[in-house]
Amino acid sequence: MMRGYFTSLGIIAVIFLTACSSEKNTFTNRWFHNTTSRYNAVFYAKANIEELEKAIAKNHREDFTQVLPIFYPVDSALIEQNEELLDDVRGFASKAIDWHRISKWVDDSYFLLGLADYYDAKFDESSNTFRYLNVNSKKKRVRHRSLIQLMRQFTDLGNFEDAAYVIEYLSKEPGISKENKFLLYKTLAYYYEKRQDVNGKIGALDRTLGLTKDKKEKSRINFILGQLYQREGLDALAYSYYREAVKGNPPYERAFFAQLFAQQVAELNKSKDVKRVRNYYDELLKDSKNRDLRDVILYEKAMFEFKQENIEEAENLLKQAAKKEGRNPLQKGYIYQKLAEINYEIKKDFKATKYYLDSALASIRPTDKIYTEINQKKGIFDNYVMHYETINKNDSLIRLSQMSAEEQELVAEMFIKQEEERLLREAEQKSEQRSSGIFDNLLAFGGRGSGESFYFDNTLAMQRGSIEFYRNWGTRPLDDNWRRNVQGFQSGGRDTGSMGSRTEIRDESGPEEPGSTIGQLPDKQSLLAQIPKTEEEVNQLREELEDSYFELGKLLFFDFKEALMSIEYLENLITTYPNSSKKAEAYYILFLANQEINGNPQLYAQRLNREFPESPFTFSVNNPDAIKGNQAFLESSRLYKKAYEQYYAGNFAAARGTIRSTLENYPLTKNTDRLLLLDIMVSGKIDDKERYKNRLENYIQTTEEPQLVKLARNMLLALTGEQEEVKSESAEVAMESQVMEEQIADAEQELENEEDSPFRENPNQTHIFVIALDPEKARESKNLLADLESFHAQNFANSRLRTGNMNLNRQEVIFIVSPFSNAERAKEYRNKFMNDFNSNSLEKNDKENSFLISIENFQELNRRKNLNEYRQFYRRVYK
Asked: Where are the stretches annotated Disordered (predicted)?
């Protein structure tokens, strides 16, 4: 019997040993390799892919106020953290292919290899793998799955033509499994999502619901469909999908939003029983399960009040919402964005709008979708506040400078007293608002009720104590034995705002620690030190005032579309500063503003023709139908070249005729300043020296292009004899003509590519400074962020710059510095960076390859991942 047992074992061993061969295509071999491949290599490779996909889903932060994405976005940083998982997938799948070549799981292993390359952003390799399977695989399931994944990859990369070809091919394919059909329609919805085709997206998602039994998947798709139908105004359909989204045991937050939005589309927006609607929100606020969602509830209640035109109540609710802690940091961005909208569109409080936009930006990341929307007007509000505060501050200081020393001291003391009273009023309001909870009542029995005898619960008492301390000791650092310090009592640093106006707006919705008076109250000596003592200082303030009146008037008309407010500031400018160098342009804006309000534009047209007959603004008023844009620039460039050749040949009268006709036919182009300078050079040849000198001086004051100002200044120095040797005019203008030739080529290229380029020129938008490095160098540059922080502390201490880094793609890591309110500020930073920034982590070439990008273009770059494409745009627009 034992002999038979061992004989059987021997036979089995022989069978298994012979089955290990991957060459013999016998039943035993196939059975062995199919079993081993499926339950070892393929099983573990597939498990690793599923683990990675779960990590991608968990890492994604759902923003329920926006339509949820079809697929969870793949974060390259997360992929890098899970690189070992992908390496294991490749290892297991490769073994399944190499060791079990005759198994029926080889094609599945190839697919898993392609999927690993896809998640690793190796799109060429993954594409080749999926194409190979489509051609060579005999398994329909694998072929179809590969094509679906290829379609998703094409959609990721914006290659919609190839994606559409795959869609058409699959639409004709028979025998697609139910599982693959579900993925096909889900990927089709993703394709329509990227193409911004809402109807196609809804149709594809509807088809997916009948193709899966996964309750969690169904819940999420139902929620997305509810969002889409709600945005299309189909409330009845939206309601039914939101109710379905609650099923399947979804995460609490999604279930909460599904119920909230379902109530909105079913009743809240249509209900005339306003009290019942308000009670609904109040009940949600009371529910302890919604503690982390109170910011959302208050926001939604504010939106309801806004629709009822209860603007003040809506604003108060938004401020309450901003104070609540929430699960989604983006919600704060929406809250502050709405507060900014109310202050901008309804209250016309542009200063408050600026600070609310600042708060919104602090709550979101540059890669978030709403960042672009919030930043579209950010730069103009920054400029508005800067010039508005300059006017208030300088006007107050000039008036103070005209008072006696005793009067100045009296004003300073009065200002400090008013600030103390304001702070005490705010503290008192906070004390009154403090709620009396159960613990406060218990403390009250012991004589320690909040706001009464217990000092540290009494905001008003703490504020009074701070003020009293400040009066006696001034600002003191938190040092040990500070009473014995040799420094004077008034040596501490203080915030010394202008007496004429408070230049900081308090964020009423933000938290504030009691007893913070010391950092807010200025001292009398610092206030008095700001008052100008000499005529030169007063003149400097007047020059700043003149500039701010003009810039504010210009900003209000062109950016804020507030013609009446613009007129007020510009009229003030020409009345207060009748000899302003900006007067001609001010007349021009007043002409346009009066056209907007049906005023008297001809008054300013007459003034322009009378006072500034040779101004390009006069030419523009006289020729309102002139060609604009790149076409005008190209035509004026060619005529400039003709005028320059006439000037160089000594035919000055012909040159002047060409210049004047060009300015009249193509006014206010990029060539206007260059044409004006050439006209002044003609003046130097045929007019008297005094006129030539006056025109040069006026040109230097009114022109903003540095190279042309430098050229004009050299001409003036040569005329006055203050500089013995300067380049000849011809050499200077020849150099400028060479620059212009390059600009003409750029303009021609821009005309050809304007429609095709995915990037747009937007200098007033918030900008980001970017350093791009390859991954290996980025890993070696461990100190780069710290070096940038030190650089900012030394040179941009008050700019609140933020630094960070991210993987743009597998070939480039980018280091980001932000935000800059507009392109000009970003250029100033880059110039400082190029000249003064030093770090062992960067080579000279890395610094030179740094670039600037607007936030809108950054979103586009982050989507396309093509840095070379953006660099071409950057060289054309910024350099």
From this structure: 484-520
* Domain-embedded: residue 340: yes
Where b means 16+ CB within 10 Å and e means fewer, 466-477 reads bbeebeeebbbe
Residue 865, in any domain of the structure: yes
Evaluate whether residue 682 is within a structural domain: yes
From 753, 784, 802, the end of a domain falls on 753
Other CB atoms within 10 Å distance of the CB of residue 102: 17
Burial of residue 285 (number of CB atoms within 10 Å: 0-12, 13-18, 19+): middle
Tell me, yes or no, whether 187 and 219 share the same domain.
yes
Element at 468 (helix H, strand E): helix 459-473
DSSP state of 342: I
Domain of 662, in residue numbers: 629-753
Q: What Rg, from alpha-carbon coordinates, does the chain have?
A: 35
- CB-based burial of residue 314 (10 Å sphere; 0-12 exposed, 13-18 middle, 19+ buried)? buried
Q: Are residues 199 and 334 in the same domain?
A: no
Looking at the structure, tell me whether residues 90 and 204 fall in a common domain: yes
CATH of the domain at 678: 1.25.40
* Start-to-end CA span in the chain (Å): 93
Q: What is the DSSP letter of 803?
A: E
Q: pLDDT digit string (tens) for 34-63?
A: 455 444 556 667 787 788 888 888 888 888
Backbone angles phi, psi at 64, to 5 degrees: -75, -15
CA distance linking residue 610 with residue 612, whole number of Å: 6
The answer to whether 311 and 341 are in contact (CB under 8 A) is no
- In this structure, what CATH number is given to the domain that contains residue 132? 1.25.40.10
745 and 778 within one domain: no
The pLDDT, as a whole number, for residue 603 is 94
Q: Which of 605, 613, 667 is nearest to 636 (CA)?
A: 667
Same-domain check for residues 681 and 736:
yes
Q: Identify the CA nearest to 371 among candidates 767, 31, 42.
A: 767
Query: What would the DSSP string read from start to end of 136-186?
Result: H---HHHHHHHHHHHHHHHHHTT-HHHHHHHHHHHHT-S---HHHHHHHHH
User: In the Cβ-directed half-sphere of 877, how many Cα atoms lie within 13 Å?
Assistant: 23
**What gap in Å lies between CA 614 and CA 659, rounded to an integer?**
11
Q: Please give the structure tokens belonging to residue 109.
A: 């292993």
- Residue among 679, 673, 676, 616 at smallest CA distance from 652: 679
Q: What is the dihedral of CA 745, 749, 752, 756, to 10 degrees?
A: -170
In terms of pTM, does the model score above 0.85?
no
Q: What is the pLDDT of residues 479-488, one digit of tens each?
A: 544 444 433 3
- Number of Cβ atoms within 10 Å of the Cβ of 198: 15
Residues 633 and 609 placed together within one structural domain of the fold: no
**What is the number of structural domains in the chain?**
5
Q: Which amino acid is at 167?
A: I
Nearest one of 858, 863, 860 to 823, comparing CA atoms: 858
Give the end of a domain, one of 723, 753, 783. Answer: 753
Return the pLDDT at 619: 87
| 3-class secondary-structure state, position 798 | coil
User: Which residues of the chain have a pLDDT value below 70?
Assistant: 1-44, 92-105, 267-273, 429-520, 722-757, 879
User: For residue 739, how far is the Cα from the chain centroid?
Assistant: 33
Q: Convert 68-121 into a string of H (helix), E (strand) and C (coil).
A: CCCCCCCCHHHHHHCHHHHHHHHHHHHHHHHHCCCCCCHHHHHHHHHHHHHHCC
- In our burial notation (b when 16+ CB lie closer than 10 A, e otherwise), range 521-550 reads bbbbeebbebbbeeeeebeebbeebbbbbb
Residues 115 and 36 in one domain: yes
Q: Are 591 and 608 in contact (CB under 8 A)?
A: yes
Helix, strand, or coil here: 493? coil
608 and 681 housed in the same domain: no
On whether residue 73 sits in a domain, the answer given is yes
Q: Closest by alpha carbon to 795, among 832, 754, 849?
A: 832
